[in-house]
Amino acid sequence: MASEPMDMAGVVQEGRTVRMGLIGLGSMGRHHARVIREVEGMELVAVADPVGDRHGVAGGLEVLPDVAALIGAGLDAAMVAVPTYLHEEVALALCEAGVHTMVEKPIAATVAEGRRVAEAFEGAGLVGAVGYVERCNPALLELRRRIAEGELGEVFQITTSRQGPFPGRIADVGVVKDLATHDIDLTAWLAGSPYERVSGQVTHRSGREHEDMVVATGRLANGVIVAHTVNWLSPLKVRQTVVTGELGAFVANTLTGDLTFIANGDVRSQWETDRQFRGVSEGDSVRYAIARREPLRAEQENFRDALWGRPSDVVSMAEGVHTLEVVEAILASAATGQTVTI
């Protein structure tokens, strides 16, 4: 999906400190609390979680019981890090109160809920964003820049692998909405194209209600073919994105922030009947040195810039809805055995 930097009139006067609220102090919320405090131009003024501050991140702030109390603290903007099934309820309450909001991925539990959230923020003229932190990974940012500059030529294929042990923090969704949503979002972003159709296979091996493994394939609207292997039942943690094109392949390791380019080699077949085959061989390989910044910090800086009216690479709520449409299509495909057109 084409993604241009958001550029809108400043909703908070540029340079004025943004009064931030945070709801949800769990495994992601605790990191957002730290990062918001570190970002220049942001001040964490209120936090809320109905089950308390189990990670001890509130500092001197009172732990408020709900979103209504959070709004009452007088906010410019808020970060929503509650469980997915609560995203719609909390986001709509913030929207009604005129609070600019970033919601942790996915935007909501269902496409219908996500659309209601996105339409509400658009209709209110508020900044609404979704927290897809992988877009701020230094390896993927560099990869996207090099693709845009034509270093790969035409892009043919994007594959991702996101595997590792089960995270105890997840209780309300399966691996498709929790992990695969990252790969769907970053793939459309890298290719600059939405998904056209997908096919998926899932398994339930851990005894939980939701799926814990998925393999999905598909095609984007611009013709790029894609494949995603995602699970949380592997002892080996893998976070890899491979983009193959006419001039070679880029390999991004988002665990380490490394990016490698393998160029196509020169193939001259000595076999007469094989000379018409347009194949490639492995050519030179280059591993790029990339400045490593914490992706979550870059994500909050993007949100601040959007609030100040600066060009910003925040993930729009409309993009968040499209990603959720693809997620639901993969699950529908797995249930029916049919390829699903988006």
UniProtKB/TrEMBL annotation:
<dbReference type="InterPro" id="IPR051450">
    <property type="entry name" value="Gfo/Idh/MocA_Oxidoreductases"/>
</dbReference>
<dbReference type="Pfam" id="PF01408">
    <property type="entry name" value="GFO_IDH_MocA"/>
</dbReference>
<dbReference type="InterPro" id="IPR036291">
    <property type="entry name" value="NAD(P)-bd_dom_sf"/>
</dbReference>
<feature type="domain" description="GFO/IDH/MocA-like oxidoreductase">
    <location>
        <begin position="141"/>
        <end position="250"/>
    </location>
</feature>
<dbReference type="InterPro" id="IPR000683">
    <property type="entry name" value="Gfo/Idh/MocA-like_OxRdtase_N"/>
</dbReference>
<keyword id="KW-0520">NAD</keyword>
<protein>
    <submittedName>
        <fullName>Dehydrogenase</fullName>
    </submittedName>
</protein>
<feature type="domain" description="Gfo/Idh/MocA-like oxidoreductase N-terminal">
    <location>
        <begin position="18"/>
        <end position="132"/>
    </location>
</feature>
<dbReference type="InterPro" id="IPR055170">
    <property type="entry name" value="GFO_IDH_MocA-like_dom"/>
</dbReference>
<dbReference type="Pfam" id="PF22725">
    <property type="entry name" value="GFO_IDH_MocA_C3"/>
</dbReference>
